[in-house]
Design a protein that fits this description.
Blueprint: E1 2-8, E2 13-18, H1 21-29, E3 43-45, H2 55-81, E4 84-87, H3 90-98, E5 107-109, H4 113-121
Parallel strand pairs: 4-5
Antiparallel strand pairs: 1-2, 1-3
Organism: Phyllobacterium bourgognense
Protein name: DUF1178 family protein
Length: about 140
């Protein structure tokens, strides 16, 4: 995806995301791109400086990612501490809980992609728990 800085014929500035330069051109020609302020379809691309991460920006990104990983790790730990492990019976047990056939409680375990998709289709709320490399130590 490419972010373009755009402007309309009334000098309103905004941004848009497109798969490619050609994608923008095609959509603009078909009048599918419009100004969010005035609705004008006369939209063009403005000059944009490329986004280059500096050393300081890279450091901020690394710190933010480390913090996010720590928070995810803590969330997964709390779920595991406060839920019942049901192993490969996860999909079956989650469905029973959802339909009131089993006690309402937090569970975690393993499920295949097909099982998870079927649960979602049935309206069962599920969420993958992250597994970190040091979780296996």
């Amino acid at each position: 995806m490419i972010r373009f800085s755009l402007h309309c014929d009334h000098d309103h500035e905004f941004e848009g995301w497109f798969r490619s330069n050609d994608d923008f051109d095609t959509q603009a020609q078909k009048q599918l791109v419009s100004c969010p302020v005035c609705g004008s379809h006369k939209v063009g691309k403005a000059l944009m400086a490329p986004s280059v991460a500096t050393g300081r920006q890279k450091e901020k990104i690394a710190i933010a990612m480390s913090k996010m990983a720590s928070e995810l790790r803590e969330m997964a730990k709390k779920v595991r501490e406060n839920s019942d492990y049901v192993g490969s019976d996860f999909a079956e047990e989650a469905r029973k809980i959802h339909f009131g056939e089993a006690e309402q409680r937090g569970i975690y375990g393993e499920a295949t992609r097909d099982e998870v998709e079927a649960l979602v289709d049935d309206g069962v709320d599920v969420m993958p728990l992250p597994v970190f490399p040091d979780d296996h130590n």
